[in-house]
Write a structure and sequence with these properties.
The protein has 215 residues and is of the alpha/beta class. Helices cover 33% and strands 20% of the residues. It has an eight-stranded mixed sheet, sandwiched between helices. A two-stranded antiparallel ribbon has the order 6-7. Helix 2 packs across helix 3 and helix 3 runs parallel beside helix 4.
Amino acid sequence: MSKIVVFGAGGRAGRRVVAEAAGRGHEVTAVVRDPAKYPALVESPGARVRVVAGDVTDLGGVAEAAAGHDAAVQAAARMDMPSEEFYTAAARALTGGLARAGVSRLVALGIGSLLEVSPGVRLVDTPDFPADARAFSLGHAAELEVFEGAELDWVVLAPPPVFLDESASRTGRYRIGGGQVPALEPPLSFADLAVAVVDEVERPAHHRVQVAVSY
């Protein structure tokens, strides 16, 4: 049994990661900005889930929340501030805060638009890619740059660049690819994305790299 801290635990992906990890018997600290908004988090099956207030962009807060844990998950997002500003701040706080807390493993959720459609060409850099989506994607790219400059053992799991299935049940099935855009159909479910995340916590197979996760 491991102790896992999940940043962004109240989001669509974060909630599933908390449930998946707790269901496997891990102790989970679920970090959200306002715990009062997420009473359902403590209903996750299995081991005890502790919900705490925290800000993934605050290095000291990250260190405090992560202390005593074996691994961290980054599933947080912010839509009320520029993407590059948020993801850069979060990545810096995570790399610094986890190092301070003695946590060496980070599994982060990425974005499929940073995967390649052909050698050396990311989807986000193709001519018809929407400008607003490009700005959000480049925030994730800035996050990657911070991770690459840190000594942390990290992996970024990037799902296909389509809307994930929120209602599909967990199958436990998924496929890890390389840095290329995977097949878009059938759409990956949030539940099975969470399976991939917790598998990388339990049995780290990819290190300091972004990889695709799909069916």
